[in-house]
């Protein structure tokens, strides 16, 4: 498993966040059947509200450009194909200047490699090598995005991701990496 460069992801988060601050959450998510009833802001603290947490894969032909995240198609199934991207986007409201983002990604079995993520000063790998925790302090600019990509040797099966803002669970998703048909 490799992070599509954790350092680049942090830069993308900061740049994309300033762009996203002026965009509704729906602008970042491709139309799906679940768009009809997005829940209202969920307040975790008096000064921290979650507008949306979305997990999925990049829309066909959608790529990151100049720090603007690719359009996301909500999916719970990810093909186990080398280079297949997947990730999450979290849209929030806050008056805080900075936030601590903690991502916990758990795989069904250890991958052959965690790639660059394994070497990052922001990441901690569990003893069984199934769970990677990435923690970063970022400017609070209304959104955070993290992208990963499937690589040869990644296990198929049930994956889980949990995202925390300043220690409070802000979003979570269960998804399945499956052999291509």
Would you write up a description of this structure?
This protein has 181 residues and is mostly beta strands. The chain has one domain (2-29, 41-178): Immunoglobulin-like (Sandwich). It contains two helices and twelve strands, in the order E-H-E-E-E-E-E-E-H-E-E-E-E-E. Strands 1, 2, 3, 4, 6 and 10 form a six-stranded antiparallel β-sheet that branches. A six-stranded mixed β-sheet has the order 5-12-11-7-9-8. The longest helix is centred in the N-terminal third of the chain and has 15 residues, at 6-20. The protein is globular and about 45 Å long.
Concise account of the structure shown:
The protein is mainly beta.
């Amino acid at each position: 498993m490799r992070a599509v460069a954790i350092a680049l992801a942090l830069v993308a988060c900061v740049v994309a966040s300033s762009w996203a601050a002026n965009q509704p959450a729906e602008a970042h998510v491709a139309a799906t059947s679940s768009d009809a009833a997005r829940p209202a802001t969920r307040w975790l603290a008096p000064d921290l509200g979650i507008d949306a947490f979305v997990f999925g894969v990049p829309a066909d032909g959608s790529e990151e450009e100049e720090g603007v995240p690719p359009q996301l198609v909500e999916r719970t199934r990810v093909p186990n194909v080398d280079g297949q991207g997947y990730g999450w986007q979290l849209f929030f409201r806050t008056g805080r200047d900075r936030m601590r983002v903690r991502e916990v990604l758990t795989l069904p079995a250890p991958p052959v490699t965690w790639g660059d993520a394994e070497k990052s000063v922001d990441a901690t790998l569990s003893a069984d090598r199934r769970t990677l925790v990435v923690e970063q302090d970022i400017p609070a600019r209304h959104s955070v995005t993290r992208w990963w990509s499937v690589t040869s040797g990644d296990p198929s099966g049930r994956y889980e991701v949990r995202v925390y803002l300043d220690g409070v669970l802000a979003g979570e998703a269960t998804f399945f990496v499956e052999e291509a048909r």
